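Sharing a chain and its predicted structure for anyone who wants a worked example. Both blocks are below, sequence first, tokens second.
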Amino acid sequence: MEPGDFAGTLLDSWNSYHHIWFEDVLEYTDSRMMLEFYYQSSAYYSKDSIVSLEFYEEENDSFAFLGSVDYDLYGIQSAYLESYIDKSYFAEQPYIYMRLGVSKSIYSEYYSDAFLLKVKNPFYKGEEEGPSNKYTLISNESVLGDSFQTTGQFSINNEKYASNKKLKQDAYRLDVKKPFDVRKNKGKQLGSYKSKRSAYQLGQSKYFWVYDFYSNADYQINATLLYSGSKANVWVNNSQLTQKQAEDLGKEFDAGIHPIITNHFANESDVDGDGKVNILAYDIQDGFNGSGGYIAGYFYPGDLYNIQYSNQSEIFYVDTYPLMGTGAAKDPSASYETLAHEFQHMVNFNQNVFIEGDEDGMDIWLDEALAMAAEQVYTGQPLTDRIDYYNYSNSIARGHSLLYWDNNGDTLANYSLSYLFGQYVKLQANKGNAIFKEILKDSNNDYRAVENVMKKYVDPSLTFGKTMTNFRGALLLKQHDGQYGFKGEQAFNALQPRLYTGASTNLRGGGAIVTQASNEIPVDKGADITYTFVGEEEDATPLLLQQLIRSVTRIAL
């Protein structure tokens, strides 16, 4: 279990829940360590109030009880639980074994509920099971994200979204391009024309088609035009923004977001001939219930076509809850990155489908990489929420594919990988933000667009498959120079190793795992599976890290 991981839930005799997260093991003094947990309960008073933490040591495949500490949490709904113990108790133990239980009183004979857990002992001085400073990077270099290949069997020396209390709400943000079949709707594209009716006036209302992502249904809402500028019309549903807030949002799009995205990526279409982009602000229905993933905004290409449920204009949708706040007061500035993100989807569709005539459009993993690059171009700041999610995603540790967009799994891991890959390509190509426009305007709208710029600016012999492997090496090693790093960009030093602990797995094309394994390549591996050995010593793979730089960052709550 890693710091910040969810440890478990206890259900007591009142049917009250006690949720517990493991925070960390820290040095308290030279001879003592501190263990910290975070506690959250569904009740203040109507619950069993005693939570006990027991310590055990491993002896000959059995456990010996060392001691315990009790916490009286009557009247307390959330708290940090700290325990101080001598390091000597676990001097010969690589792990600290514990049991957490809940009971009515300290005199209760039995727990109402309990669970076991173990964490690494950072003060263990014994001999390591294997060379911890050496890693094996196992990568499927196939460009086919839908297909699996086995890693083969290797020897080890040592719910779908990541749930971690240290992740801020922004880390769960989903900015969506709603799926649309261009081929099925061929010939229904709206032509650019000058509208024969007068433009809408401020204060006027109209109905819009929107989508419920929870029930998967289209429905209509009424919205009022509260801002009309040089490039944006801002429509607001149910008075969720004031006119001043709508003006702030619209002016930022007109003066900031629109020129930045069109200069660095491409131009939008104008199917209704009004020269405007409609921005509809409303509470996007996505099943959000106070935590976890939510839809921050979306773009639907169908709105550019004469079909059912189309708003027949350039339009994207931005969320008011929880993106702009969970209370009555709203902060439109919280949506600006989402506006940049969705606008990139809009200009991307125009460039690739309408101008280039590619009915498939751009692969979603690459489209999203450019959309998140648009966010960073606009703000000038790295997307730390995507870096944070990478550090806590178990699916990434298990080999999540860069290329396969897992709509039914850990989609947030896809966002993190796409963002990081886009920034890796930018830094390796050494062409700054101009690289994104070059990728977007390449006639290839898949991996080949990236392969072309990497061959042009990095190495003429560099395949896309090898670029993916090098990217995974950069996530692990973060070298200041060379293929295994982000050219010293400080934000990416926060990336933490995501290690796989199994003995074998199947990887999709674009998937990869990192293990601490012996320097052996299994004969039963898939044809596109590559093994790269990295660590302190020079290895068979060229340009490997000479000295492993380790950086452990504790993320502040």
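Comments welcome. The chain has nine helices and 20 strands.
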